[in-house]
Write a structure and sequence with these properties.
By secondary structure, the protein is mainly α. It is built from 24 helices and five strands. Strand 4 and strand 5 form a beta hairpin. Helix 18 packs antiparallel against helix 19. The longest helix is centred in the middle third of the chain and has 27 residues. The chain is globular and about 70 Å long. Bound molecules: zinc ion. Zinc ion (ZN) binds next to helix 5 and helix 10. Zinc ion binds next to helix 5 and helix 10.
Length: 485
């Protein structure tokens, strides 16, 4: 537990790997940053009733967010019917993958924060769907309303970090001694338990209400509540074993026997209790687990995850990715090619193949793979388009550079808050010798990374090469005067 994030973050860097990349760390003043981080961790921890044991060690100044087209698509598919059943489905939801090995999830209406650890630990889609249903129950019930408001108003991850820190302090100062201000003081004094007590105490009645709502959503969508029951039973047992470290949780987030007993009665009463996830969904889940295992723990973790079913397609996918991450692209390529032969229309297999080719510096072949992956992807993920644009940029030919810029712009158009997309766009313009637009893209990259001062420096430099009053000049001016949307 204590060493969360370490191996994953060191292995994945968006400068060298496109798929499942870490977003550039969000830098804030250290005190605010660690405050924000602690709050977010505490928040997600409490949302599921799990104590994040590494809160006390969370000193890093970045939010460990990872991006991945395949996982984002799958979690969206898990969540959408549930949110629709709750009457909350009218907005496009954004999946925020938090790189942490513990089991956590939190829903704020526009976004679902979910830990990679939760996705890896859950053996079936139904377990995750059940937890999302419970969180949606809290959301629909208006539980922790003040906190959700703050999150929902946040436009970018950088702002989320700032808001969770500074916002809590401001709210506390304005409103006097509310829960948030107490939480702020608690974290500032280095006592996260105080924060958790102030911020995160779903009441016992709220827990039961969220469970009941979850059961309704699952029934409406023809799904079983067995996964939710399994998951909460596991938490309940795990809690019993861990002793004093769990005290803050026990205070803020009770998971009593009676709740489990109630949940079990309700779950078993559903005609869908024994209904399994569709084989197709289970397979996507297995593939996702194989990928997360490979990225977070390498080949050993893949073996461990699929120890009961070593021939599972998720195990083979994980093995291919782990082999590639290990530096053996030559050995990894036949493994992914075998999978592509099995499922020629799977966009993510072809995407990973593109990553492997990129690693071998076969940039033209990589670009072709990403282009194919993008055309196979029914969602036209901005991440795959970004990889395509990036590979084209790396070829360096004038025609490709032009297409690269179009693709990167299209990617950014679908995902405005992506610093990586702007970073590649800056490189592409730089290679074309268009330094003003390169600087403008760098300014955007810094802006969305939370580096406002750097952003202003680049924007000022960009303006010197741009026509005064032109749309791009105004775009730069907005960054300089920090007047954004
Ligand atoms: Zn709850």
């Amino acid at each position: 537990m204590g060493a969360y994030g370490g191996s994953f973050l060191s292995k994945i860097d968006f400068d060298t790997n496109g798929t499942m990349m870490t977003v550039r760390p969000i830098r804030l003043r250290p005190s605010i940053a660690s405050f924000a981080r602690n709050t977010l961790l505490a928040l997600t921890a409490a949302a599921l009733g799990m104590v994040q044991t590494s809160i006390a060690h969370a000193q890093s100044s970045s939010l460990p967010i990872v991006r991945d087209a395949e996982i984002e698509a799958l979690v969206t598919d898990y969540a959408t019917p549930i949110l629709n059943a709750a009457g909350l489905g009218n907005h496009a939801i954004k999946i925020v993958l938090v790189n942490n090995s513990s089991f956590n999830a939190f829903v704020d209406g526009r976004r679902i924060f979910i830990n990679t650890g939760a996705l890896l630990q859950a053996e079936t889609p139904n377990e995750i769907i059940g937890v999302l249903a419970h969180e949606t129950g809290h959301l629909a019930g208006g539980h922790q309303f003040q906190l959700r408001e703050q999150l929902a108003n946040a436009k970018t991850m950088a702002v989320v970090a700032g808001l969770l820190g500074a916002g809590a302090i401001v709210a506390g100062a304005a409103a006097g001694a509310g829960g948030l201000s107490k939480a702020g003081a608690g974290i500032a004094m280095g006592a996260p338990e105080v924060a958790m007590r102030g911020l995160l105490n779903y009441q016992r009645t709220e827990e039961m209400a969220a469970d009941r709502s979850a059961i309704t959503y699952l029934a409406k969508t023809g799904q079983s509540a067995k996964g939710m029951l399994t998951t909460f039973e596991r938490f309940s047992n795990a809690l019993a074993l861990t002793g004093t470290r769990m005290d803050p949780y026990r205070i803020s987030h009770p998971l009593p026997r009676e709740r489990i007993a109630n949940l079990e009665t309700l779950a078993r009463a559903s005609p869908y209790f024994d209904k399994l996830d569709s084989p197709a969904l289970q397979q996507r889940h297995d593939l996702m687990r194989g990928k997360i295992a490979a990225y977070t723990g390498g080949g050993a973790s893949v073996l461990q995850t699929f120890r009961k079913d070593p021939q599972n397609i998720g195990a083979r996918y994980g093995d291919a990715i782990a082999t590639y991450l290990n530096g053996s692209v030559q050995a990894a390529l036949p493994k992914i090619d075998a999978l592509i032969k099995e499922q020629p229309k799977n966009p993510y297999f072809v995407e990973i193949r593109g990553e492997m080719l990129l690693k071998q510096n076969k940039v033209q072949d990589a670009a072709a793979a990403f282009q194919k992956a993008s055309s196979l992807d029914p969602r036209r993920s901005s991440l795959i388009r970004m990889s395509y644009g990036r590979a084209l940029m790396l070829t360096g030919t004038p025609a490709n550079l032009k297409t690269s810029i179009d693709e990167l712009k299209a990617s950014i158009g679908r995902d405005r808050e992506s610093p990586a997309g702007y970073a590649y766009l800056a490189q592409a313009y730089g290679q074309m010798g268009d330094m003003a637009r390169s600087d403008l893209a760098s300014a955007e990259e810094k802006y969305y990374s939370g580096k406002t001062q750097d952003a202003q420096i680049f924007a000022t430099r960009a303006q010197r090469g741009l026509k005064s009053g032109s749309p791009e000049w105004i775009q730069a001016q907005d960054i300089i005067s920090a007047k954004r949307k």
